[in-house]
Predict the 3D structure of the following.
Amino acid sequence: MKIQHFTFNPFQENTYIVYNEEKEAMIIDPGCYSEKEESILNEFIVSNILKVKLLVNTHLHIDHCFGNAFVERTYHVKAFANREDEFLLKDMAGQAKIFRIPLRHAASSLENYIHENDKFALGSEIFEAFQIPGHSPGSVVLYNAKSGCVFVGDVLFQGSIGRSDLQKGNYQSLIEGIREKLLTLPDETVVYCGHGPTTTIGHEKANNPFI
Ligand SMILES: [Zn+2]
């Protein structure tokens, strides 16, 4: 399994493309905003001859789904996300207004919902979803036990945790979810964050002052 990472949009959000030997790909949190960022993403997919099979959002804050409409239209996939965050997608325009960022595409609708312990398969690679609300009410993380990695969106960062002061945020749920569902993973699990550098569960257990 290979993981390609891009940092997109004014929020410096991390977009991931996960793909396998069969060239099947999953896009996690497409944050591509400008036309240039869309072509950077597309050029990677085209030059590696990838077939985009899955689009998954860890949550639906605007910086994590700026590129949803582009990805859905270009690769003929529909996003998976948690229903608790659907209100954010429906109010993309409102989110954009708060940050004074004009939207380039009309927001897409959500048709595929992620539930606790749902599994996404990319060939033999299995990603299990765990709900960890608190940064947003519908935040999920995607854990791949075989490859020893977890995509956490804005739940956990190197040396920090997600904000819980945004709409429908909840500090208690966030910290409990991190402790129960992330810190119980093997120490060597690689953590791919929605912003900033990659880390490991062991590193965060030893160094993160917020958990
Ligand atoms: Zn967020």
Observations:
- Residues 2-207 form a domain with the Metallo-beta-lactamase; Chain A fold (CATH 3.60.15.10).
- The two ends are 30 Å apart (CA to CA).
- The first strand starts at residue 2 and ends at 8.
- The helical segments are 35-47, 62-65, 68-75, 86-90, 92-98, 171-182, 201-207.
